[in-house]
């Protein structure tokens, strides 16, 4: 199993899950662009030979490859939400709490606010970004 850095969910390293990920990566154009020939061959061979990965060494190697694919397939909005939106929500929450808004401590847990702040950040001209 490997952890996804986006939402911390585990992806089981089984034939079916690896095949789904391969199809998705090919459709989106990341399979050949992101992975080396050796990495593609490792996943292909695992899909053909193994039903479920049991070897720790193989799982670690495949986990690195799957992580590389997941990072490449992550949307721009999701990446900015993770990198910038959460920090902006925390800052806004602290400011509102200092002004006396008691419910502002829940703002950092609101994915809609984090997404709004991330999209606003993406659409802000570069001249205004610090």
Give the helix tally: 6
Q: What fraction, in percent, of the residue positions are helical?
A: 55-70%
Strand fraction: under 5%
In whole angstroms, the N-to-C terminal distance is: 39 Å
Structural class: mainly alpha
Compute the number of structural domains: 2
How would you describe this structure to a colleague?
- The protein is built from six helices and two strands; from the N terminus they run E-E-H-H-H-H-H-H.
- About 65% of the residues lie in helices and about 5% in strands.
- The chain has two domains: about 70 residues, no CATH class; about 50 residues, no CATH class.
- Helix 1 packs antiparallel against helix 3 and helix 5 packs across helix 6.
- It is mainly alpha-helical.
- Strand 1 and strand 2 form a beta hairpin.
- A two-stranded antiparallel sheet has the order 1-2.
- It is elongated.
- The N terminus is likely disordered.
Summarize the structure.
The chain has 130 residues and is mainly alpha-helical.
Q: How would you summarize the topology of this molecule?
A:
Elements: E1 2-3, E2 10-11, H1 15-28, H2 31-34, H3 37-49, H4 56-73, H5 76-98, H6 111-123
Antiparallel strand pairs: 1-2
Key words describing this protein structure:
single chain, 130 residues, mainly alpha, 2 domains, 2 strands, 65% helix
